[in-house]
Amino acid sequence: MPIIDIASNRNILASGLNVNGSICLYDMDSKSGSWIKTNDLAPNMGELLPALEALAISVIITRQIHPMALKILSNKGFDVYKAKGNLLEENIQFYQNRTLDLYSHEAAMELATVCGGECTSCSTDVCDEEKKMM
C-alpha cells in the first residue's frame, strides 16, 4: 500500500504508487507490516513491478491509480483494490473483511484527465512503460 512517508506518516495512505514515495508491505499471515521507500525497492516504475513480483506481492490497495497503471498491474496478475479513506490500518481491516472493491477501469478513468485520456500524450513512467509494450 502506498503511504505518505515512513518517518512521520507511515499509517496514512498516499494518493497512489509513486517511485518517490513509500509503501507498506503487509503480510496477512503474520499480521505484520514493513515500511520501505519505493525508490529503495525500485529506482523507477518500470522496475517496481518485477520487484513486487519478486516479493510475492499479489494485492495492492491504493486511493488512486491511473488507467494504464491499472491495466498493467491487472495484466501482471495483481489485484488492485480501491482504498476507503486514507488510514492504513482501516484499509487492512476492510480488506480482511472483504469490504474493499476491486479498482474498476471506470474509477481509474476519473484520473485520465492527467494524461488527456490517452497514453500517447502521457509522460509518466507508467505510460512510458505501456508505450514500450505497444
Task: Describe the 3D structure.
The chain has 134 residues and is α+β, with helices and mostly antiparallel strands. It has a single domain (2-133), classed as 2-Layer Sandwich (Nucleotidyltransferase, domain 5), CATH 3.30.420. 34% of the residues lie in helices and 23% in strands. It contains 6 helices and 7 strands, in the order E-E-E-E-H-H-E-H-E-H-E-H-H. A 4-stranded antiparallel beta sheet has the order 2-1-3-4.
Our count of domains comes out at 1
Overall form: globular
The CATH H-level superfamily is Dinitrogenase iron-molybdenum cofactor biosynthesis domain
CATH class group: Alpha Beta
The end-to-end distance, rounded to whole angstroms, is 28 Å
Strand content: 15-25%
Class inferred from helices and paired strands: alpha+beta
Low-confidence stretches: 119-131
User: Portion of residues in helices?
Assistant: 25-40%
Mean pLDDT over the residues: 83
Radius of gyration: 14 Å
User: N-to-C SSE series?
Assistant: EEEEHHEHEHEHH
Lateral arrangement of strands in the main beta sheet? 2-1-3-4
Largest sheet: 4 strands, antiparallel
Write the layout of secondary structure elements.
Blueprint: E1 2-5, E2 9-13, E3 22-27, E4 32-37, H1 38-41, H2 45-54, E5 59-62, H3 67-75, E6 79-82, H4 88-96, E7 101-102, H5 105-109, H6 125-133
Parallel strand pairs: 5-6
Antiparallel strand pairs: 1-2, 1-3, 3-4, 6-7
What keyword list fits this structure?
134 residues, alpha+beta, four-stranded antiparallel beta sheet, three-stranded mixed beta sheet
